[in-house]
């Protein structure tokens, strides 16, 4: 029964940069499927309609999810629990519910507690986005060649995972599967920690000094321009991994500080070269996988 | 006598990414001036010739700087003292000597001590470059629209500053002047600190986790791919400002850690929003100044 070829209606809740990019990519990938978007904001619904980001922009949550074979949450993570409760009674039996949130342990927990037993939850995290926000920045190729991490627990329905995988694959993503615990650990270190660091660097700088900044500062701090509300939710729902990450980073900063303070040229060079070589290997890996051009 | 219109010969010592970009841009800006490059490496001299990066690639330092109206050092900062000593006896009286180094206090000190009294030293720091290295990545537009900071002390010859300003302006740079002390303080915070942070983030990450990285990690860590030897010299020659910068950053990281650890949503949001708004103002400033496109 759960077959991506039988897909008739997909609903995306939240028409920001990522949500609207999903509907746009889905319209291209599934031209015969009804792709519906919803936003709780009147102004966003209007913009989403004007920009043709979905086949239909629903006025109510009920209208949005009713009869959908797949519902995708694309709002800030902390709103998911409320949405699960609100949509629970409208969902079709056998519907696959997923999301595009950046943390996964809490989402699985909320889904288990609040969604009806006859719908299937699978976690999704497409590794795509930008520091920009809003439906006006959505693009139908934002997800092309992106990784998409699916999360499943031992209780997750295997057919629903396959179905969700089929959906993201059709949108151009390279799909991989992790447990929610493993996912939050990895992304705490390699996504949430760089985010915190970018914000800390900006907060540590004088504005008058920043005017002299070159491309290095601009790139290093880019993600600090991301929406604060979206990221507050991410940090709140992955606090343990993030504080661990900050502690790891602080140790590395102390190592470099010590070498610089004592003007230990050999040790500075060793620490910088270690980072350079490691990042070089990463870039080659990403180029090989065509995740970088 | 010191007039940029009277320029006949310019010599750049060091034909890496930045040095060769300077000779290429100078050939375009001053088609009637002899632009000479030098590298102590035979292989670099050969590549620099093959790629037509200068009118002439000299075989010896003496040949390179003899009769030059302007000599520009574009090698790692710690080599400057040695080069000043080696070129001192070959320099024409009235020659302007400058550099493209990222730290300035030490360079002024070495110039004062090692250059003859009848040549003029002015510090230069074009805010351009990339994480790449080598003459093969040089581009004649690398300096276009870049800031170039000139550094001068009360003893620096004003005519020589004007001359140097004329040179970089002709290459498309927006020139500003600072004291070496002020320069090193500002760039310690907004260039050398982000560099250290990028290296620390890479060193703090497991390679297996890094494979899952998205664009945020890639951008935040970009400068960690820069040549370790060049950056070792920068960190060695600006250690006090850098350790101060690390301490400032550590305070901001502790503030964020505390808010995340206690799940204080309001405080997390406030810290992230402060960074977001500050960086947004910076981006608008840079767009206005046409330093970003």
Show the helix and strand layout.
The structure is a homodimer of 293-residue chains.
Chain A: E1 9-13, H1 17-29, E2 34-38, H2 42-50, E3 56-57, H3 61-65, E4 70-73, H4 80-87, E5 96-99, H5 105-114, E6 120-121, E7 123-126, E8 147-151, H6 158-170, E9 174-178, H7 180-204, H8 207-210, H9 215-220, H10 228-236, H11 239-261, H12 265-288
Parallel strand pairs in A: 1-2, 1-4, 2-3, 4-5, 5-6, 8-9
Antiparallel strand pairs in A: 7-8
Q: Which descriptors apply to this entry?
A:
homodimer; 293 residues; alpha/beta; Rossmann fold; 6-phosphogluconate dehydrogenase C-terminal fold; 2 domains; 12 helices
Cα shape of chain A: elongated
Radius of gyration of chain A: 21 Å
**Which residues of chain A form runs of ≥5 with pLDDT under 50?**
none
CATH superfamily of the largest domain in chain A: NAD(P)-binding Rossmann-like Domain
Cα-to-Cα separation, first versus last residue of chain A:
39 Å
Q: Can you tell me the CATH class of the largest domain in chain A?
A: Alpha Beta
Number of strands of chain A: 9
CATH topology of the largest domain in chain A: Rossmann fold
Biggest interface found: A-B, 89 and 89 residues
> Which band does the percent of strand residues of chain A land in?
5-15%
């Amino acid at each position: 029964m759960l077959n991506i070829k039988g897909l008739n209606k997909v609903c995306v809740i939240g028409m920001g940069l990522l949500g609207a990019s999903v509907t746009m990519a889905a319209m291209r990938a599934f031209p015969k499927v009804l792709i519906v978007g919803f936003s709780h904001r009147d102004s966003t619904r209007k913009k989403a309609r004007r920009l043709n980001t979905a086949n239909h922009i629903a006025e109510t949550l009920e209208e949005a999810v009713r009869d959908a074979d797949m519902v995708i949450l694309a709002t800030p993570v902390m709103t998911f629990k409320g949405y699960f409760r609100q949509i629970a009674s409208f969902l079709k039996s056998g519907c696959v519910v997923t999301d595009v949130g950046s943390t996964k342990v809490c989402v699985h927990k909320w889904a288990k507690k609040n969604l009806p037993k006859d719908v299937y939850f699978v976690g999704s995290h497409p590794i795509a986005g930008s520091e920009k926000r809003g439906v006006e920045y959505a693009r139908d190729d934002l997800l092309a060649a992106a990784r998409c991490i699916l999360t499943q627990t031992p209780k997750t329905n295997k057919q629903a995972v396959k179905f969700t995988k089929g959906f993201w694959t059709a949108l151009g993503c390279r799909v991989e599967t992790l447990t929610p615990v493993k996912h939050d650990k990895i992304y705490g270190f390699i996504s949430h920690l760089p985010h915190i660091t970018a914000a800390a660097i900006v907060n540590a700088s004088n504005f008058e000094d920043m005017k002299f900044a070159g491309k290095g500062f601009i790139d290093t701090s880019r993600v600090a321009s991301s929406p604060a509300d979206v990221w507050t939710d991410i940090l709140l729902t992955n606090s343990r991994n993030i504080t661990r990450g900050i502690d790891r980073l602080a140790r590395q900063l102390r190592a470099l500080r010590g070498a610089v303070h004592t003007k230990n040229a050999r040790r500075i060079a060793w620490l910088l070269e270690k980072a350079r070589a490691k990042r070089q290997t990463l870039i080659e890996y990403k180029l090989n996988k065509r995740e970088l051009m």
